Amino acid sequence: MKAKLWKRIFYPFEHNTSNALLVVGILGYLCLSLLGSQWNFISDGIIQMHGSKPRALWQVLINNAINSLSLSVLLFLLARLVYSKTRYIDVFTVVLISQLCLLINGLLLFNPAQQAAQKDLIPIILKGDFTLNEIQVNQFVWMTILGILALVFIFYFFVLLIQGMKIAMNSKKGYHAVFIIVFTLLLDIILWIVRPYLG
Q1: Where are the alpha helices (H) located in the chain, listed in sequence order?
Q2: pLDDT tens across 122-178, in order?
């Protein structure tokens, strides 16, 4: 039972139904949007997240939809070049499931306790004052750990994206993974520069 659960989590596209994955992905998208509106952060790119001014939930829903849909369309076009029978819904599901990693990063980095700690520490660090008290040292260590975890989940975002896309595009070629990563990063940069977001 434990082995099966492990496989369903780390190899979700092989051990879960498409409908179940789509439902989980949509729930993750809604949760990420709710957190963004409550904790005031924006996903201003495919993998980028930053603190921001307050936005209404409907604005955050649209902003996150821009990311999800644009990446889905881009990867769908790439997939159709490789495998003409690729379905858009499969690519869209892969993107939503991969973005669960961003939901976890939102929980780690933008929760109220973490934001309060950052507000206290960042001005001190920027001033070059490293005579921190014990509580501040603990906060700094904790922020460092969370930063490392966030990088791990960004890495896992790409792992899931590659896993799912290779199934969706019926690919067994390693260089297709490189294309997936490069196209995703290019789109991330374009969205960050153009910033087609509301609010």
Answers
A1: 2-10, 12-15, 18-39, 57-82, 88-98, 100-109, 112-126, 134-168, 175-194
A2: 776 667 666 666 666 777 788 889 999 999 999 999 999 999 999 999 998 999 999
Tokens of 151: 């990088």
Q: Is the pTM of this model over 0.90?
A: yes
Assign residue 131 a region: left if phi > 0, alpha if psi is -120 to 50, beta otherwise?
beta
Give the C-alpha separation, 10 to 7, whole Å. Answer: 5
Residue 55, φ and ψ in degrees, nearest 5? -135, 150
Q: Which helix (H) or strand (E) holds 42?
A: strand 41-42
Each residue of 30-57: pLDDT tens digit?
999 999 999 999 999 999 999 999 999 9
